[in-house]
Amino acid sequence: MGMTMTQKILAAHAGLDHVVAGQLIEAKLDVVLANDITAPVAINEFEKCGADAVFDNTRIALVLDHFTPNKDIKAAEQCLQTRNFANKYDIKNFFDVGQMGIEHALLPEKGIVGPGDCVIGADSHTCTYGALGAFSTGVGSTDMAAGMITGKAWFKVPSAIKVVLTGKPGRWVSGKDVILHLIGEIGVDGALYKSLEFTGMGVEHLSMDDRLCIANMAIEAGAKNGIFPVDGVTLEYCEGRFQREPVVFSADADAEYDSTVTIDLSALRPTVAFPHLPENTKTVDEIAQMEPIAIQQCVIGSCTNGRIEDLRAAAKILAGRKVAKGVRCIVIPGTQDIYLQAIKEGIAEVFIKAGAIFSTPTCGPCLGGHMGVLAKGERAISTTNRNFVGRMGHVESEVYLASPAVAAASAVAGYITDPDKI
Amino acid sequence: MKAHGLVHKYGDNVDTDVIIPARYLNTASHAELASHCMEDIDKDFVKNVKSGDIMVANKNFGCGSSREHAPIAIKASGISCVIASTFARIFYRNAINIGLPILECDAAAKEIQAGDEVEVDFDTGVITDVTTGKTYEAQPFPPFIQNIIEKGGLLKSITEK
To answer: In this predicted model, what pLDDT tens digit does every residue of A327-338 receive, in sequence order?
Structure first.
């Protein structure tokens, strides 16, 4: 029986010719990642067990992105601990304020991760790199610490759901709408322990930024990883960027899947996930039939939607318009390069003239850290990835998840709306 | 190895943001994390929990963030075992890696009620609801996970190899 794309990458990294779903393997890691929240716990474990060396100082990435620029004294101390560790072990891919970006926007951009890699990160959205044709999954701090010491991790080989994409997406339909639609179809545990393997003719119509957004939220369906085939779009993105040679894996023709989901991209509509689960999806057409849902905050950014195409989509809507009175619109680029690009393209000016703020990269508001925490009873539309109870602030606040276009249109209207209706 | 205690019961999709809200992730102190465990969905949990108590929930327990702070907060609050219909996969790994025993058992998760007295035998996977007298069978841990738990966590199992 053939192997899925994920299984082939895992087999190669375990030194095996063949693996099957359910098999326990030990795989070599190409990159091990942590951030300012998860690294301190990993460093404590690393030190507690008496380790005095990392397996490879070029294969570890430490990114201070969550509560930075330091939001309070405790956050500053966690960054300091991580910084000291990075200095002590001469970690080459250490990113502090100034070079720092949101980790899952930064690592692909810098070419630290790429096709064929096997990556773990102490951050659940590490699954983002599946967009590049890598096996990449989120783990906890202890796994990360063990990975830093040994360069290896154990995995249970996952089975897979095949997601066949057909057709071409219409105007204002982005990667975010594809993944929200899928999560709405299969539920927040619809892919629990499994791979989501994206395939089909529709893939060619998805840009790298769209694919990164889709793979990013695979975890929101419970998946172990989400993965895209490597094609011309991938290789073009990696050209002059990826620090190693891409290794291209593809699923065997006779690979076995638990199930198949087909999505006609041409039939999708801009989609919004209502509180308090990413599976509570409605299209903008369904929302138009409801009482208007007023918002007080709009967040455009995050590891899900803080890339240049996301900012361009938001700027297209905000150009020549104003953010509605009573709405705070917060735009956060994913990385310093994206920030600079947005300035060069005049996008930064569009945001500021529209009455939005345009800040330095940070995960900040996505997890209720800083830079846009909600009060009791407040409601936000956000391009982030989770709308759990209390995610962006007060336990009685609400988060609606959407694409940058829908978020920007809603910021202008003051209520959740279709980008075509402003 | 056995666990024995009173049950704290929750529903579907208990996410790591409610187990330990991100606003407390500026610390790695186990005691401090425990003092805010579950507070966004059960503000009395910290007040009521006693050492050895057992947490029972329905499907997809621990979904969301990879924060190891979540199983750490539960373990440090005194909980000796979590039983659920299913667990989110990162939480499952993290719990094992820090030595918080967790068992998947749909029937037990559905039938056991808040406040029941429950005993769990990790060697056999047998869960006994002492209050109702009913027993349930969960899969005991496979040998490689037993090894991690016996050694007191993943890192100790590596350093003692």
So the answer is: 999 999 999 999
% of chain A at pLDDT higher than 90? 99
pLDDT of residue B145: 76
Give whole-number Cα distances, A50 to A162, A248, A307, B121, B156, in Å.
Answer: 43, 38, 40, 32, 10
DSSP assignments along chain B, one per residue: -EEEEEEEE--S--BHHHHS-GGGTT---HHHHHTTTTTTT-TTHHHH--TT-EEEE-SSBTBS---THHHHHHHHTT--EEEES-B-HHHHHHHHHHT--EEE-HHHHHH--TT-EEEEETTTTEEEETTTTEEEEPPPPPHHHHHHHHHTSHHHHHHT-
Q: Do A146 and B69 touch (CB under 8 A)?
A: no
B1 close contact with A: CB closer than 8 A: no
B73: chain A residues, CB-CB within 8 Å: none
Question: Rounded to two decimals, what is the model's pTM?
Answer: 0.97
The answer to whether residue B88 neighbours chain A at the CB level (below 8 Å) is: yes
Determine, for residues A44 and B63 on separate chains, whether the beta-carbon distance falls below 8 Å.
Answer: no
Provide the 3-class DSSP secondary structure of residue A25.
Answer: strand
* Cα(B112)–Cα(A299) distance, integer angstroms: 41
Low pLDDT (below 50) residues in chain A: none
Burial category of A383 from C-beta neighbours within 10 Å (exposed 0-12, middle 13-18, buried 19 and up)? buried
Query: B57-101, pLDDT tens digit by residue?
Result: 999 999 999 999 999 999 999 999 999 999 999 999 999 999 899
Split at pLDDT 50, 70, 90, the class of B146 is: confident
| Spatial separation of the C-alpha atoms in residues A296 and A314, rounded to whole Å | 17
Chain A: give the shortest CA distance to residue B133, in Å: 32
